[in-house]
Predict the 3D structure of the following.
Amino acid sequence: MDNIPNILVFDSGIGGISVYNEIRQKIPKANYIYIFDNQAFPYGDKSNEFLIERVKAVINKAISTYAVDIVIIACNTASTICLPILRTSFSMPIVGVVPAIKPAIKITKNKCIGLLATKATIQREYIHNLIRDFASGYKIELLGLSELALMAEQKLQGTAVNLDDLTKLMKPWLELAVVPDTIVLGCTHYPFIQPELAKVFPDVTFIDSGYAIAARVDNLLKERNLVNSGAKFQITNNLLCSTQYNEQTQKLIGTLQKFNLINYQLIKI
Ligand code: DGL
C-alpha cells in the first residue's frame, strides 16, 4: 500500500495558500491541512517573543490533534524568527519560507533587487546576514509594509485592490534613481497581488519562494518514502482550519474551496 503523507501548511492568513498551491501541484497525492492563525493576524506587526510563543502553540495544538508528517511554515515573518526553536521543539521535519534573495541575484540585470516584505521580516538579523553573505555587490532595496498582506486578504474575500493606494505605498521605490528590475515577494500573501504590483512595476520580474519550497518538501518526503509521485490520485479530505471564526472567515472558507480545501474546523489556542 502507498504511504500518503499528511502535510500541514501554516500561515497567519491566506498567504500560505500560495505555497500550498505549489506544493499540491508537485505532490497531489497527499492529505493537506491548511491552518491560518487569523486570530493573531497580522504577524508582521508582532514582536519576536509573541511570534515564537504563538507559532509554537499553534503547531503544538495542530500536531496533538492531527497526524502530521511534515510542517510547512508558509510565512516569512514567522520562519525568519521561529525556525530554530520549532526544529528543537518538534520531531517531524519543519520547512520554512524565506525571501528568495539568492535566486533573485541570478535574475537581476541592473544589480538592483527589491525586497518587499512585512515590517518584521525586513528587520530580521536573518535577512541582513543573507544580504551580507550572498548579495555583496548588489543594491538591495528593502520595503517593509503592513498594508499589503491585508490587501491580499481582502482581495481573496472579494474586495479589489485599489491601484492608487498600492502606487502610493510603492512611492519610495518609484522615486529611486535606480528602480529594482527584480522584486522578491518576501511575504507569502504577495503572490496574490502580483498582478496589481505588475501594473505599478510593468518591467520588473517578480520572484517568490513557493516553487523552491515545493521541491524541498517533495525531496524530504521522498527520503522518508512518503511520496509516490507519478500516481494519479485525488484526495478529497483536505482540511482548512482557523483560530477564529467570524464573517471574514466565512467568506474565505467559500473562496478556499476552489483550492480543494473543503472541510473546515475551528481550532482554539
Ligand atoms: N504571510 C506572512 C509572511 O509571509 C505574513 C503576513 C502577516 O501576517 O503579516 O510574511
The longest strand covers residues 6-11. The longest helix spans residues 48-65.
